[in-house]
Amino acid sequence: MTGFVIVGAGQAGASLAAKMRALGFGGPVTLIGEEPAPPYQRPPLSKGYLLREMDLERLYLRAPSFWKENEINLKLGAPVTSINRSTKVVRVGDQSIPYYKLALTTGSRPRQMPATAGSSLKGVYTIRTLADVDAMAAEFQPDRKLLIVGGGYLGLEAAAVGVKLGLGITLIEMAPRILQRVAAPLTSDYFRNLHSNHGVEILENTGLDRLTGRGRVSGAVLSNGMKIPVDFVIVAIGVAPRTSIAEEAGLEIDNGIRTDGQGCTSDPNVWSAGECASFPYEGRRIRLESVGHAIDHAELVAGNMLGASENYRAKPWFWSDQYDIKLQIAGLNTGYDQIVERRVDHERSRSIWYYKEGQLLAVDAINDPRAYMVGKRIIEAGQTVAPEHVLDTSKDVKTLLSGATKVATVCDLKRLTRRHQKNGHPTSSPDR
Fold it and tell me: Fewest C-beta in 10 Å: which of 159, 213, 328, 411?
């Protein structure tokens, strides 16, 4: 009897399989994972697990007994070699697995430096899998020199871990500032200062020309000509969706595996969810890389594979832990034309609110969970809140909920901007 087959045993694949059983589906479900480990959390890899504060069992998304008790056929260490959509068969090595409907939850892969830059030298790592972190764990010894290539959240999290373990760290970022692709200058400034105060050397506008060493990395030549000694390197220059198996099967690719609003691909019998899938969102096509999205999208796709026919309403949210600082992000700041900073504690807590033509798009909350929850509720309700109300710290942040109805016009924002800048309030425009 053919059943449902899920390719990719990460957060999305595990959530999809579990949701099918929760919805009462009693037929065959096979979850195929390329890695030998059962489904596990990825975010702690660059934080608690790398710090050795979280053991392996705590990484697992489900107790090992869950898969057997729910009759989910978990095939691990089993890379899929091909998909035949005509015969509806997935090939894993010499084995053929037939499917009634197929879900692709293949996730993402780290972007790699070119081999000419020295990426093949020993001591050069990426952070994506359990095996990646296990391989580099022994490198984290006091007084060793770590070079981190990439100033995004993953690189900054790795830097924070390295500091706690006593390493000397240099972080380079090709862009004019760290976090440029994902955050406003105010957020970048905060985290640059945070890491600098912990002894991390951050070099912006600086790329990597090449790594040097005989067999193993021992140094680096930067784009500005500087030569530095290094003991090991972490490359954190982003990820790309894993689409090769879908592309080889003839499925449509568009910034990931292209799906409709319900998660169906260009083949009505093949679905996709999580980081590998792109989907329609507010008049454009996007792809999200977050745990929350992986769970929500996969659970909706599970229902639709069983006949629910519901459209996905993404509610983007993200987080990052660095030292004792927690950053929580609600919404997507793409295309913002105005930012407003609300400071509760000038040293520890603040929030940055992103606007486009008067509409609140996103909130970066730094050690301010209440601002995050308020901003998240407003954004998910499709509402906005006037910038001057955000700036008024004499009132509790929860009062913003009661005034979150009117969408300000562009003229309103320009008038408010001039007034706030004249009064010395911290409002600014994006640098992109």
Answer: 411
